[in-house]
Write a structure and sequence with these properties.
The chain is α+β, with helices and mostly antiparallel strands. It contains 3 helices and 8 strands, in the order αβαβββββββα. Strands 1, 3, 4, 5, 6 and 7 form a 6-stranded antiparallel sheet that branches. A two-stranded antiparallel sheet has the order 2-8. A hairpin with a 5-residue loop joins β3 and β4.
């Protein structure tokens, strides 16, 4: 994706249309740009899940998403300018900045955004059960 021209990027436009990502905003995570920066960074790094997919498109900077594999071990995913990730509803994850301490990201949603994070353990939610079922099916 062309992060320098995200407003007019036809590939991003097609992804948004195909996936029905009707809502978006841009967040900058930096100590001078994000209110309550220290608190937010700690919250992002706390292992949690969401009941909806989490879609992030990195416009500037870099950071890491950590997710759990089928054996519950961490996998670190390095994200930098131009990268997009979709974390499925129900997956445990966390986010942290790298040594640059800066990222500007587009947040995309299907419909109205829901920001609620459920810290681990949150295994009783239907989204978590569905995710675990899909994970088990893919393992076979």
């Amino acid at each position: 994706l062309d992060a320098d021209n995200y407003e007019t990027d036809p590939c991003l436009k097609e992804i948004r249309r195909a996936e029905n990502y009707s809502w978006m905003d841009i967040v900058t995570i930096h100590k001078d740009k994000l209110p309550n920066y220290e608190e937010k960074i700690k919250t992002f790094y706390e292992e949690h899940l969401h009941l909806d997919d989490e879609i992030r498109y990195i416009l500037e900077g870099s950071g890491y998403f950590d997710v759990r594999d089928k054996d519950d071990k961490w996998i670190r995913i390095s994200m930098e300018k131009g990268d997009m990730i979709t974390l499925p509803a129900g997956i445990y994850h966390r986010f942290t900045l790298d040594e640059n301490n800066y990222v500007k990201a587009m947040r995309l949603f299907v419909g109205e955004p829901v920001w609620t994070a459920y810290n681990r353990p949150a295994d009783d939610f239907p989204a978590r059960k569905q995710y675990m079922k899909l994970l088990a099916e893919e393992a076979h």
